Amino acid sequence: MAKKKLNIKKAIKKPGALTATAKKEGAIKSDGTIKVSWLKEKAKGDNKTAQRARFALTLRKLNIK
Length: 65
Hints:
Blueprint: H1 8-11, H2 17-24, H3 36-42, H4 48-61
């Protein structure tokens, strides 16, 4: 059986929303990425930002090339 591909584009409902929130709070590094410590801190809540942060941490674990 062929391996099923993940469709990440469909899973991301509002592209750039987490980055915008991180930018407002000053959690963007000089290379344009979001600080992992900020993601882990935000992932502890139960709102949309927390949900997006948890998803970002999950995507970070995937080795997509």
